Amino acid sequence: MARTVVISGGGTGIGYAIAERLAADGDNVVLTGRREPVLAQAATKLGDRASFITADLTEVEGAQRIAEHIAENHGTVDVIVANAGGNIGLQSSEHQPEGLAGVSWLWTENLRLNVMTAVHLVEGLKPLLADNGRILLFSSVAAYRGSGSGSYAASKAALHPYAIDLSAELGPRGITANVIAPGYIQDTEFFGAGISPQRRAWNIDLTHTKQPGTPADIATLAHWLAAPEAGNVTAQIIQSNGGAVVGR
């Protein structure tokens, strides 16, 4: 029986790769994000198993819109992939104030992008989550080694105890909650306009494998964690970074 899967940030990069993998299995994937043209194009490429709904998950209203859409069109949800996020420090800084106000803005925005987008999506869909469902949250290697300003790393690390608490709450219903923590993944929009050759080489040199990760790597891991066979794997933070976090 086809499952219903909701994937935030599903129009590009890791989110799209996960959607592609699950749709190929016969699951019905619902892509969410803020950019309708991107979502529409992705859903078209994925075919009949895919649909989309635009929503801003930094706001409660966005999650409510998604929950209403799922309830009306699917009834329940089987897999929640809370993939949306980013590092506001790598995006335009034109709105960032100076001084202490700027530090506060940076922290608040990263918490909104990475914590609240996940919390709003999961909590909004929790009443619709079917028994034996799956919840996937997305952290980062930065949660283990820092991110420069601290705010991005902290926002990702905050998802670790959230997954543990979700697992404890929902585990009696056969629902699992896990976190995937990628390292450097190429071919995504994380670095905005692009990563410099020097930064790319630095990221790759940190790994033991001496190669970048790909969206397909993370999709393979997500596919396994979302599978019925992974029902005894829960409350875990699973890293995929080529060994970059442990040093040389």
TrEMBL record:
InterPro entries: KR_dom (IPR057326), NAD(P)-bd_dom_sf (IPR036291), Sc_DH/Rdtase_CS (IPR020904), SDR_fam (IPR002347), Sec_Metab_Biosynth_SDR (IPR052178)
Transmembrane region(s): none
Residue ranges of domain Ketoreductase in the record: 3-188
Keywords: NADP, Oxidoreductase
Superkingdom assignment: Bacteria
GO MF assignments: oxidoreductase activity
Entry similarity comment: Belongs to the short-chain dehydrogenases/reductases (SDR) family.
Protein name: 3-oxoacyl-ACP reductase
Native organism: Glycomyces algeriensis
